């Protein structure tokens, strides 16, 4: 039996910065409203013709992570790609990454767990490494939200929150059982599936049906979010699953060197910070710059933290997410 560790991290966000002021020119919103409710000041959006897509951003982040892991792309045994905005309905973006990286053949799997996608992917990678089956797994979280949002005033409550970007991690075998990924804790509660969802087009309601209905009121092909219900569940589940991970490892909130919550909303992160009595230095927030990049948010934040020297050997790092499904989870790491 082996342990697993994060051996390399990378991120990529499109160059195109979209500020709250930019959004207020195309919909009825304001910088004040967005900052007060979400903490977001700006986000990145793919610009038509800039060559980016969910897969391409993932590849750019992955190349950096692979280099930093000190391995060759030929050493990748498995690709796990988490996203809610894949390039195609099928196949998944994982096989597109395998092709783009020119890895002759390797298994590739997409993880469809939205904001919790990266946590689910890391947990999956961890198990494949601990079982001894694989040595190096490339985990990517990437989202192209801007390609599918409603930029009219009708969609403002959702659209102002989300941004595009990708993060990647190489998860590798670690011989020291006291270091690396200590445990993962995963949950879902499908009764809330529609409360944060995009339900059409789908096999229940395919494109011709939507077109035939010719109903301008039909917003089923845009994301729907019951914001207040999401908020209430998020603060409870974030807290529960962080505590579950700490208890499992005999740790206390004061042992946390850095908590990296999924960047859902600054208010949610602040609530969790207060709940555990953590200082500003113990919690990483970068939603102000990137908005909510869903599956991309934790690996982007993790990469920035590592690049800024905020993660040191021996640190206890806690990753936690909550999102559509509802799904939620945490990962406890001894770096
Ligand atoms: N700009 C200006 N006004 C707006 C906007 C906007 N972008 N969006 C909504 N409003 C208006 C509404 O129309 C409403 O107006 P009314 O009172 O005249 O009807 C008013 O603001 C209040 O709307 P609410 O939806 O009740 O606003 P709320 O205080 O709930 O804030 C928000 C909305 C920020 C989405 C909040 O519910 C929230 O943070 N929810 C958590 C959801 C979340 O963070 N999701 C992230 C993605 S999911 C995830 O990653 C976990």
Percent of sequence in beta strands: 15-25%
Number of domains: 2
**What is the helical fraction, as a range of percent?**
25-40%
Helices and strands, in N-to-C order? Answer: EEHHEHEHEHEHEEEHEHEHHHEE
State the separation between the terminal residues, measured CA to CA: 19 Å
Q: How many strands, what sense, and barrel or not for the largest sheet? A: 5 strands, mixed
Assign the CATH superfamily of the largest domain. Thiolase/Chalcone synthase
Structural classification: alpha/beta
Large-scale geometry: globular
Question: Layout of helices and strands, plus pairs?
Answer:
Layout: E1 3-12, E2 17-19, H1 20-24, H2 31-38, E3 42-44, H3 54-69, E4 78-82, H4 93-100, E5 108-111, H5 117-130, E6 136-143, H6 156-159, E7 165-174, E8 180-188, E9 196-197, H7 207-213, E10 224-225, H8 227-248, E11 258-261, H9 266-275, H10 287-290, H11 297-307, E12 316-323, E13 327-334
Parallel strand pairs: 4-5, 4-6, 11-12
Antiparallel strand pairs: 1-7, 2-3, 6-7, 8-13, 9-10, 12-13
Bound molecules: acetyl coenzyme *A (ACO).
Acetyl coenzyme *A binds at residues 29, 33-34, 37-38, 115, 156-157, 160-161, 196, 225, 227-228, 230-231, 234, 264-265, 268, 292, 322-323.
Walkthrough of the structure:
This protein is an alpha/beta fold and 335 residues long. It has 2 domains: 3-174, Thiolase/Chalcone synthase (Peroxisomal Thiolase, Chain A, domain 1), CATH 3.40.47; 180-334, 3-Layer(aba) Sandwich (Peroxisomal Thiolase, Chain A, domain 1). The protein has 11 helices and 13 strands. It has helices spanning 20-24, 31-38, 54-69, 93-100, 117-130, 156-159, 207-213, 227-248, 266-275, 287-290, 297-307; strands at residues 3-12, 17-19, 42-44, 78-82, 108-111, 136-143, 165-174, 180-188, 196-197, 224-225, 258-261, 316-323, 327-334. Strands 1-7-6-4-5 form a 5-stranded mixed sheet, with helices on both faces. Strands 8-13-12-11 form a 4-stranded mixed sheet, with helices on both faces. It has a two-stranded antiparallel ribbon with strand order 2-3. Helix 3 (54-69) crosses helix 4 (93-100). The longest helix is centred in the last third of the chain and has 22 residues, at 227-248. The model has no long low-confidence stretch (mean pLDDT 97). The structure holds acetyl coenzyme *A. Acetyl coenzyme *A binds next to helix 2, helix 6, helix 8 and strand 12.
